[in-house]
Amino acid sequence: MRLRLLLIVGVLAPVVAWSQAQIERLEGRYRAQEEVLYLWSGEQVKRLLPGFEGIAADLYWLRTVQYFGGERAFAAEKRFELLLPLIEITTTLDPRLEIAYRYGAVFLSEAPPAGAGRPRDGIELLKRGACQLPDSWPLQQQLGFFQYLFLHDSVRAAAALEKAGKQPGAPFWFHTLAADLVARGGDRVAARRMWQQMLDQSEVGVLKENARLRLALYDALDLADHLATLVSAYETRTGRRPQRLEDLSRAGLWRGRCRMEPGFASTMMKARVACRSRGNRPCGVRFEPAADGGFHRGQTIPHQPAIAGRSMRADGRLCGSRGGRSTRFAREGRRVPAFETTAIDGKVQKVDFPAGSQTVLLFFLSGCSACHKMIPEWNRAYQRRPKQLRVVGVLMDQEPPGFWSTISIQFPVLRSPGRLFLRSLKVNRAPLALRVGPGGRIEDFTLGVVDPIRLGEIFRP
User: Fold this and answer.
1) What is the C-alpha to C-alpha distance for residues 108 and 85, in angstroms, rounded to an integer?
2) What is the DSSP pairing of strand 358-364 with strand 389-395?
3) Domain 301-458 homologous superfamily, CATH
4) pTM of the model
5) Domain locations in the chain?
6) CA quadruple 144, 145, 150, 153: dihedral, nearest 10
7) Is 372 within 8 Å of 402 (Cβ atoms)?
8) Per-residue pLDDT tens for 385-403?
9) CA quadruple 401, 407, 411, 415: dihedral positive or negative?
């Protein structure tokens, strides 16, 4: 009998390896595991494991992550049918497991095949988490972001951000962003800033990678918008549409290179547009010193066009620049000397920076369309500024007749002290906002059209 068993095992053992090889050949070596959920309620699991709810929650959360990863990576249909029940069981067993709310909302909200495509369920999950953890401002922040990004509900998003801003330790700019969403309904610039904050605040993992992919998608959308504007400008100038990028380059509208990288975020797009410019100079209109001490329009220096908030002149060239920083002119640590100049009404005024003072200088030109976009934002920031913060506008050119009746400016404006002053600061682009501390030391700055969150950092207390 024993000999017969050994013979059977010896004959069948090679068959097992052959059968497994055939299965892998037909279905693939890596595939999603068939999942079955026998208990669909967290209360049922609680009754089975009294006193071990925390351990059970951890185990169910590990199973949730494994299930999501397996479906996303290997499943053909990616239905995520068990995702919501698994998350609900986890949060029922441990209502204070914050990571389950935050990551679970991402898993549920992202569009297929990257996620379950159920943003309303994801937002409801965040609401339950916010109720269970009322002191967690990251949960309220994510709730506000998701209300805006997935449901495009700026009113509820603003309310969530206002609530988050009242929590201890929450960033001050939540109130600024909430007010802007209510006033304007939001735009791609605000969306980009939200994803950037999620990228900066998230630990390495799904949240960070998801935010990085979203930002890359906005880069591609911005590039497409910019190219469409250049094509329109080319058609206006020549009477025909360009056939290739070289046509735009010969017309002086494009000085970069564009290439397609297949495989980018195949769950979101078929390809990514990546733009590489020549050099690292910030984009925008460069202003040369004029004889009157102001500035006039000079050579346009293009940079990578995949940015938000650029404005176009009639000839298709750029005015203003990417909202952010540059290392080629004003930078932190440089000092602004005290200066004396005339106000718009002709009265002489002195601007200095004594100990304990905080000042914001807003450099702009009357003929710059990017400046025209920023002036309303500056007005709103000026109205909400801290009482101890001094705000002064600096007009760098001679305004045309009717400018002050056309453009509403609520902050005080002085004329530029002269080109030597501007040259000393290397201020040759606009719009530019400088935050200046005691002794004239530049603490922070923004260049170009920026979103309310970044502007709130300049106008911080």
Assistant:
1) 11
2) parallel
3) Glutaredoxin (3.40.30.10)
4) 0.45
5) 11-134, 187-276, 301-458
6) 40
7) no
8) 998 999 999 999 888 777 8
9) negative
